[in-house]
Structures are given as structure tokens and as C-alpha cells.
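Many introductory courses stop at the sequence. We go one step further.
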Amino acid sequence: MTPQSRLITLQAITFLHPGTGQTTGVVDLPIQREVHTGYPMFASSGFKGSLRDKAEQLWNKEPDNVKTLFGSSVNGDETNTSAGAFSITDARILAFPVRSLQQVFVWVTCPMVIQRLLRDIELIGYGKPEIALDDALALVEAKALAATGSPLKDLLILEDVNFNVTANKTVDAIVELLTPLLDGQAGFDGKRLVVIPNDDFQHLVRYATQVSARIQLNDESKTSDNLWYEETLPPETLMYALALCHDPRRGNDQIQDAGQVAQKLQALLEDRFLQIGGNETVGQGWCCVKISGGQS
């Protein structure tokens, strides 16, 4: 059967820590970033691991379905191992929440991010939306675009950066594209989305993240044994990934082709919630998730 493609979007509802491990920099535990852009990301291996962990909890009486979708366990004792029936990409940034003097916070994105989204959804056969990015690409320093009905106008102050906001129908088209891709109950408001220059977006996603000091207490002395600084992505961060489902590589009466693999993946995310990244025991990493598509 022809492979089935899907788009998975995530909207953070708690802080996210897609960690890289310890570094020697100022922040001891930074988040994952693309090496060429500096944009936040979540590696596909960790994303797929989070999906597998959820599948093992939900399908604990159907372990064969877990192995069919995700492949044999690395630490298992199976003699006939096989790969999983779907692949998934790294989760990329889609829009980033930044505090504002006017609207508490707004979502910012940039032409480069939207161009990548358009390319990616065309790749999986979701369609090619007619969005003219000429105006967004022509943004000059200290300019930003908002939707035509947005309350954002005139001077917009985001962190330490000022923008002159102009309403533009290009943003209307972007909002029209994003709204059905995101969970309808998660609270995305397209009137608070602004498209800013690529360089300013890169600055904000690097320096407007949360950096928290954390300590580990000694049970006996009640003093700190360790102090470290940890970076997280704020709630309301929007990310997306692509999933490609194909025919199973192992026999399974319940999952026999790519279409049924896609249906099973859809069922896994039916409750709309997924925990990804580190610090699960302190309530971090929870997202509203939506899977879209259906075209082959």
C-alpha cells in the first residue's frame, strides 16, 4: 500500500525541556537547538520514545501492536527483531510565545519558519496553500506583520525589541492555515500572531526562553548538594513534526497495511495529550497534540 503521511502539531501547556545533557556554558542544561539556525527543536528519537512510552501504557495488553508500530525493543530478547512501521521527523518550532507590554504575550514566527512549514506539508501531500510571502520576506528591521483584525498595532514591544506593526492579509492566510492544524481547545488565537524578521525571531527564540535555578537537597543536612541552571521552552510554544506510515515489517492481524498504521497512530493521540522531554515528575513536558492529514 502507498505510505500514509501525517502532520503532528504540539502546543505546550507546561514548560518543555528537550534537553541536550550537561554543557560547560552558563546554562548547565540547555535545550536542543538546530545547529545552523539556533531554533529550538526536539529530536525525533526522543519524540518517538515519548510516543512509544504512551503506547506501552495504553496498550499494555497488546504488546504486539507496540512492536509493530515502534519496532522491537533494543533491550529485548527477541530473536526475530524488526523495525517499526512509521518514521517521524524532529519536531520543529512553529511559533514562539513572547511576553508583551500590550497583550501579555504574543506568538511570533518568521518567513523562514513559514516557508519550511509550506515545504514540509507539500512534501507529505497535505496540499500547497496559496500564501504569498512577498510582504513577509520584504520585512525590514523593526517591522512586523499582524492579522487584519488584530488588536496589535502601532508600536509593539516584545522583551527588549521594538516593532512597528502593520496589518497584512498574508498573516490572515497564515492564521487560516495554522488554525485547523492546532488543537481547537488549546487556546491558539490568530489575532495574537505576528510575523517578524528572521533575525529578530532567531534572537527571541535564543534569549527569551526560561532559565531556572534548581537545587538538590541533602536529606540529612537539609542543605544543597548541587545547584544547576536549566533552560526550558515556555508554555504555548508551538511545534510540529511529520510522520510517515508504511506497511508493517512484522505479521500482525490487527495492523496489516500503512492505512491501519496511520489509524493506530491517530488512536494513540486521540486523547489530545502527550508528555515529551525531561522533568516529567515535576510536571513539565505536557502538550496538546493534534494529528492532521490523510492524503497518501
